[in-house]
Amino acid sequence: MNKPAALLTSLLLLPACQTTRTVTLVGMTDYHSHAVPFYSEGEPGQGGVARALAYLREAKARPDTLGVSGGDTLNKGVPTWSDEYGCVEWPWFNGVLDVMALGNHDLDYGAEAFERCRASASYPVLCANLVGADGAAYLRVEGKPYVVREVGGVRVGFFAVAGPDMQRLVKAENLPAGTRWTDATEAARAVVEALRTREHVDAVVLLGHQLREDDEALAREVSGIDVIMGSHSHQKTELGVLPGTRTWYLAPYQYLAYLSEVRLRFRGGRLEGVEGGLVKMDGTKREDPETAAEVGRLQRALVAKRPERFEVLGHLDRPLRDEGLTTGQAEVGTWAAEVWRRAAGAHAFFALSASFRGGLPAGAVTVEDFLGAIPYRNLLVTAELTGAQLADWVALSESKRGTDSYSQRSGVRYELEDGRPVRLRVLKDPSHPEAGDEPVKPEATYRVATLDFQAFVAGGYKEALSLAGNVRRTELDAHTLLMDALRKGVTDSGIGQPHAK
């Protein structure tokens, strides 16, 4: 037999199990009712549900493609669209999404509203550790707390859990009657075991809904999760393997500014490669024309009905950008922290990066623009910290760099050596920042301020503040202070305060 014939024969004799298949996952998360394109990362006109739907529909037209969502489709109070139209978009994704994770904001309007939303969708909503009185998962598909989708002969298992942060954020009265949370790690372990041993899936995918650090911890504790589609933290993270695990992770930021696209490559039913990344939903991506027309109609009606939300607060000569919120000093965070610091009469002010969900555009800034960037209502909290306690607080913030728990700040500056803050300095006189700063003295007492969520809810910070003296929740409203600053034209992100290096 000649060589070409021998090669052909050997190929024909290869077992069918050696066939290579690729399954593509296209994912969205943390939409938060941002139907209309918005200002993001220093650029107007980003995202929008019409663009995302067009991309998802085109992707679903290709073979072996699944659409998934990490949840948080609603957001009570901000934007106004959510309060007026609720989950009007859920059925728009019928035939596009194959499965969705429950997000904390999906329960913002209570259990009855959530059930109406769920009834409008043909795709299942999952959460393995929200259980009923019988101890079984409340959200089930054919009695199971997961779904298996088979495409091209490959079986992919999907599940979701509510992380510790999500469980804290959902109000008890908004939960379905008789339900309760169980431990996310234990629930995940049971689901992965079932998917691997009973369902014999070829890959396991976690959709959400928990913080990035909880995703990492879960991946280390529970083996067998191939991919985590990051959610909840609003992080923009390209595809990579989580440290100390074999689990791939990516996260597409927020509000449909990006979608995730992951390609799982199988040979003989075994996952042998993962690739992909984030897809930016900017002006280069086409909109679905019917969806765009419907969004435009609904938005015009909304502006007419709620004109106070579209009132102009002030004008910016240049944008206050949100770049660097979780890794350094973002312009919008520095500006807000300084306005709050001055109002509190504090040496230093700290605000979780999670307090900010975007920047502010140049030109006219409306109430809706403002609330889209800084959506959460808080009161200012003041406390007295020793210099040593202030140093510990700064070190805590730096330990959370890269996450939503990192702090934007004003009144302090320092340098980093091996990831640790050194040469910490603080304002000499809170009332006169132009006087400059001085080294922090461990035994001295400093007036430090923050937002009440960070003071009394955020993990690590609330424990640190419990050691402080004279902790007081003031009547100073964070939104009111910033809105007044915009009206008065106080919009310089520096405002004379020292910048951290």
Automatic annotation (TrEMBL):
This protein's GO CC annotations: outer membrane-bounded periplasmic space
InterPro entries: 5'-Nucleotdase_C, 5'-Nucleotdase_C_sf, 5_nucleotidase/apyrase, Calcineurin-like_PHP, Metallo-depent_PP-like
Top-rank taxon, per record: Bacteria
Domain called Calcineurin-like phosphoesterase: residue spans: 28-235
TM helices/strands, residue ranges: none
Keywords, sorted A to Z: Hydrolase, Nucleotide-binding, Signal
Keyword flag DNA repair: no
Short name of any one Pfam family annotated for the protein: 5_nucleotid_C
Keyword Nucleotide-binding carried by entry: yes
GO process annotations (BP): nucleotide catabolic process
MF-aspect GO terms: hydrolase activity; nucleotide binding
Entry-linked SUPFAM superfamilies: 5'-nucleotidase (syn. UDP-sugar hydrolase), C-terminal domain, Metallo-dependent phosphatases
Limits of the 5'-Nucleotidase C-terminal domain: 314-461
Family membership: Belongs to the 5'-nucleotidase family.
Designated name of the protein: 5'-nucleotidase
Protein source organism: Archangium gephyra
